[in-house]
Amino acid sequence: MTPIRFYNTLTNQLEDFAPIDPPVVRMYNCGPTVYDFAHIGNFRAFVFADLLRRFLEFTGHEVRQVMNITDVGHMTEDQLADGGGQDKMELAAQRLKAAKKSGVADVENPDDPFAVARYFEKAFIDDARALRLKIADDEAPRRPRATEHVKQMIAMIEKLVAADHAYVAGDGAVYYDVSSFPQYGKLSGNTLDKLAHGAGGRVSETDTAGKRNPHDFLLWKPDAKHLMKWDSPWGWGYPGWHIECSAMSMSALGVETLDIHTGGEDNIFPHHECEIAQSCGATGKAFARYWMHTRFLMVEGEKMSKSKGNFYTVRDLLKRGVDPAALRLELMRTHYRSNMNFTMKGLEDAHRMVERWRAAAAGVDAQSVAAGDSDVERDFVAALSDDLNISGALGAINKWLNDSPDDLSPLVRMNSVLGVLEAAELETETSGDDAAIDAKVQQMADARAAKDWAASDAIRDELTAAGIEVQISKQGITWRRKMTLD
Ligand code: AMP
Ligand code: ZN
User: Fold this and answer.
1) 27 by DSSP, 3-state: which?
2) Which ligand is nearest to the CA of 33?
3) What's the DSSP call for residue 352?
4) Could you tell me the pLDDT band of residue 425, with boundaries at 50, 70 and 90?
């Protein structure tokens, strides 16, 4: 069998993959921030993690996958330094309050930031399930919540302070001292030397008093007024973003060195660089052996992001009739280390491919498919073993199908990696919200038909406050969720 090779961001090269404790593979994926719906760019990173897991399972590994839920509200350090800014979780709470009032979101208590986070967590799991991400059906501890691991974070910060990797600044905030960790910069190339010569290389006047180096990062922020706060040796407050992943990954996987750690390319710096500094600082051991990063999903040459407004959510696409399997395949079929350009045409092509496979597999009784080994499966595995060469793998399937094979059971087996043959089940816990929005939009259309412009405007304002953007055209009224909180 061909050895499995992955590109490791830590060493900038392809490496043979060997887990520490075979056949077990312990993998951690940076998961969603749940103050908004995840967009399909986020899901590109999550679908990649799912493909990686399924491929490793197909090749005989036992994968323990952990994907965290970032549910602590965070202001950025800049916002904190400015003394202003509004926490994103607070903004989400405001928007959900409006959404609840107008009946388009079923959130128990939008004044409670925990309820807001749970609402978006549920939406994430629904979308993940529609895209057949296995993590959505794993037991809850595989999706650890930051808010439920603050104790572990505090313990790690205490260790770092004791080891002189961290210090308490003038206002009581705890910072990681990057100069105490000589390997800082190994993952991203942003060594302290380079950073000192680049932008942001000085401590600004607005920085917290007593912060020693502009690249020192926050571990604990005392803030007795914060929406989400916990007691700690440094007073009531909340943890920094990076410490969450260091603490949760080790706690949920039960080891100090992980096999694989993944995220989107924007996570490389500072997030993962800081995770390494904290984790190695606290344990003295390597934190993760293989670092794998997904390049961005782009729309017309730009990164899909909430702040640019050029995003789609999974639910919005499914509402427009997109087959979730086609969306899954589309997010997956551009190699993870290439930027992917999202287009409707690409999605249609992916859909045709899925339909072709479904037609081919229709005669196969999935229940009676035995384990097997065929040329096409060998080609499929060989391609994926080469740093998840997905186009090679899909090419092998399509070429094989062109020859009209008699035995189509290999397709069913390979589908355990691809996850696209199954038909969609679209009823989800949060899909009821779409029906409520549709009903509002219908009321608006009725008001307009009756030339009651005031009533139509009132409904539109209500929807806008709830984060729903309404578009009126000759064809009728359409809506989509506006995400502006990035
Ligand atoms: P967030 O919820 O913002 O923390 O993002 C969750 C994950 O999505 C992270 O691993 C990001 O790196 C990743 N991500 C964000 N935007 C994109 C994008 N346009 N394409 C691919 N991955 C992305
Ligand atoms: Zn993370």
Assistant:
1) strand
2) 1
3) H
4) low
